Amino acid sequence: MSDSTGESPTVSQEELLAKARILSEALPYMRRHAGKTFVVKYGGHAMGDERLADLFAQDVVLLKQVGINPVVVHGGGPQIGQMLDRLKIQSSFIDGLRVTDKHTVEVVEMVLSGSINKQIVTAINNQGGTAVGLSGKDGHLIIARRLRRTTRDPDSNIEKILDLGFVGEPYQINPEIIEMFEDSEVIPVIAPIGLGRSGETYNINADTAAGAIAGALGAARFFLLTDVPGVLDKQKTLIPHLSLDDARRCMGDGTITGGMIPKIETCISSVEQGVDAAVILDGRVPHALLLEIFTEGGVGTMISRE
């Protein structure tokens, strides 16, 4: 490869040896994971940063090339919000979930299944992969039902059901359409849109959709890319591994709080459904997936049965 002057850049023997060592150290992990299915929830700042998006696409293509079956499930909250603002459609949130009426769900589907999904597909294809975009509607992949949330009135102590509109939760996952791609070169990229029993469209939290898909596939790994390093202890140090009991205990004693709680609950649920391990990773770190999969210690927090 030549630089801008037309001359080949000088690479020292030490740099070449370092690259060779990295490849050699990764080989046992490649063998261990060959033929396994990895579900990756992709979102956050990593998806909004063009450089990180390209690196993520490279990583996914590499996983496919070494015999792993990556399945990408993506979010898109900020992009949905921007489109709603452009269309002057008001929206609100309850407990972090966007209240989704009929007009809003049309925009949500347009953004998730349309522009965002195709951007990710294009990025993977540009890196030499063969990605195909899907939503939960395709092949009845995600059958959804209306998400029910309740709140308790502080004055009367009466519990009330919150109306979130067309916000759904997975009721049934039909993974056959994804399994069709396992022996092919295709990388499925899935938008978290669900189909109701009566044909209605549901907006599903991407973490929840990805965890449910990972469980239905019996994935070896479920990776949740976030905007934090992983689960931190009370001294703000990364916890590299949690058993299911450890994770529940950390939620109970206040170690895990706020927005990390639903992510941990999703990881626990996926492991209980048969996923070997769930991993919370910092998607802002370049090549975070590769660092987690092909190094001994990893770089995130792994949650497994033991």
Describe the secondary-structure layout:
Blueprint: H1 13-33, E1 37-42, H2 45-48, H3 50-65, E2 69-74, H4 77-86, E3 93-94, E4 97-98, H5 102-126, E5 130-135, E6 142-146, E7 149-152, E8 159-162, E9 167-173, H6 176-179, E10 186-191, E11 193-195, E12 201-204, H7 206-217, E13 221-226, E14 241-243, H8 244-252, H9 260-272, E15 277-282, H10 288-293, E16 301-304
Parallel strand pairs: 1-2, 1-13, 2-10, 5-10, 9-12, 13-15, 14-16
Antiparallel strand pairs: 3-4, 6-9, 7-8, 11-12, 15-16
Helix pairs in contact: 3-5, 4-5, 7-9
Brief rundown of the structure:
With 306 residues, this protein is of the alpha/beta class. It has helices at 13-33, 45-48, 50-65, 77-86, 102-126, 176-179, 206-217, 244-252, 260-272, 288-293; strands at 37-42, 69-74, 93-94, 97-98, 130-135, 142-146, 149-152, 159-162, 167-173, 186-191, 193-195, 201-204, 221-226, 241-243, 277-282, 301-304. The strands form four sheets. It has an eight-stranded mixed beta sheet with strand order 5-10-2-1-13-15-16-14, sandwiched between helices. It has a four-stranded mixed beta sheet with strand order 6-9-12-11. Strands 3-4 form a two-stranded antiparallel sheet.
